[in-house]
Amino acid sequence: MKRILTSIVMISSLGATGAALAFNLNDALNKLNDPDTQKALGIGKKMLESAKEISEPQEIDIGDGIASNLLGAAPLVRDDALQKYVNRIGLWLALQTERPNLPWRFGVTDDADVNAFGTPGGTILITRGLYEKFRNESELAGVLAHEIAHIVQKHQLKAIKSALGREWQADIAVAVAEKKGNSDAKKSLKAYTAGTELFARGLDKGDEYEADRMGVVIAARAGYNPFGLVGSLQTLDAVNASDGAVALMFKTHPAPAKRLEMLTAAMGTQMDQFGDSGKEPARLYVLKK
Amino acid sequence: MRPIIFTSVVLAGLVLGTAAFAEPGTLLKADSLRAKPFGDAEVIGTLKAKDKVDITARKGAWANVQIPAGKSGWIRVLNIRTGSGKSGDSGVGAIASLFKTGSSGNTVSTGVKGLSEEQLTNAEPNPEEAKRLSKYKNTDADARNFAKQAKLSAQQVDYLPANGGSE
């Protein structure tokens, strides 16, 4: 609340139609999105963003906390070449999105389960169990692009926010205070735990379908065959649902067949041309046994 | 015990190896079998909904399939269902198996137990491992160069709007 109040005060103090803006922040923000108004007021996009939601550094901080928890549950595969490989591909994909400048990090965890996790701020972890199922690099790219899409759209952040409810603002206030206070013993935020638990509950179904739709496009933008994600989803569809390795992933995502149905409806035949021209580099890194 | 596990892993590997070359699938709707992976390629056969095929290769939007009669050709990959097709929802089986993961473990072959829901919610932070992850973070230039090596070039493609499908 404090942040919002501060923003209102700031907006008001910039003059303009101060009173009207202060009464309804939403209206004010809509108005402020108008480029002419922005120019007149000399307001950058950054400030508008911060008024609407938490800052990017805070988002990254929350994501780092969640990533640390995820790595506590399953460490990274001890294979430098593998980790370097996924980071190169992941970043190349992320560079094709609307948030190229996040501190993108990618890793393969030593976990027999089939799953992938994206945390706010740009950290993506995929399990060894999933990695071993890829037929080629475009399938890896498709899965990474799906997770990148979640982060670009801040799907996880939205879910953490709603899970914490009113506690959200207080939690973020703690984070801000600690950043200023420069304390060594940094208190673990509720958002870290809520964010980690999120992966046991899953995101909004609609957000999963959106990440699939965006994932194929991000892969195509990066020059890959966009049907890589389709191949991966077909692999998952073929896995027996009673296999424990997919239990958590199946519980937290719509069924692969349903995802393929939604994706088919959205893609039609318009992605075929990118399937024809898209590359499928024959260099998928093979895990050491 | 050990030799038994080892043998079964090897056997499983052989079976999987074969499966990778011919994946079973079922047609979602009737389709033309084409000589090449293009929409305007010569039609060399017709397939009905629910026909069984074996996927032998994938290329862009297309899958090379072999039909039981022995003929092979290309159909659109999105027209193939690779799952059992018994149910559109895997929920029940998945939830049932959740109860099993805790005690039995998931796989023998890897030696690493899969992540259960419980492990995830009780996870303690691992800052050392987080530091290790950051170590692999690379530069934009390096990522671009790696893409270039594989002849991947960036292009503009618009995001797809949601369309159809019943929720």
Please tag this protein with its features.
A: mainly alpha, 2 domains, 5% strand, globular, disordered N terminus, B: 167 residues, alpha+beta, SH3 type barrels, 5-stranded antiparallel β-sheet, two-stranded antiparallel ribbon, 5 helices
Describe it.
Chain A is mostly helical and 289 residues long. Chain A is 64% helix and 5% strand. The longest helix of chain A has 18 residues. Chain B folds into two domains: 64 residues, SH3 type barrels (Roll), CATH 2.30.30.40; 59 residues, no CATH class. Chain B is built from five helices and seven strands. Chain B has a five-stranded antiparallel beta sheet with strand order 6-5-4-1-7. In chain B, strands 2-3 form a two-stranded antiparallel sheet. In chain B, strand 5 and strand 6 form a beta hairpin. The longest helix of chain B is centred in the first third of the chain and has 20 residues. Chain B is extended and about 60 Å long. Classes of the chains: A mainly alpha (289), B alpha+beta (167).
- By secondary-structure content and strand pairing, the structural class of chain A works out as mainly alpha
Number of helices of chain B: 5
Number of domains of chain A: 2
Q: Fill in the CATH topology of the largest domain in chain B.
A: SH3 type barrels
Strand percent estimate of chain A:
under 5%
- Outline the low-pLDDT stretches of chain B: 1-20, 87-112
Spatial extent as radius of gyration of chain B: 22 Å
Give the strand order of the largest sheet of chain A, numbering strands 1, 2, ... along the chain: 1-3-2
Question: What is the gist of this entry?
Answer:
The complex is a heterodimer of chains A (289) and B (167). By secondary structure, chain A is mainly alpha-helical.
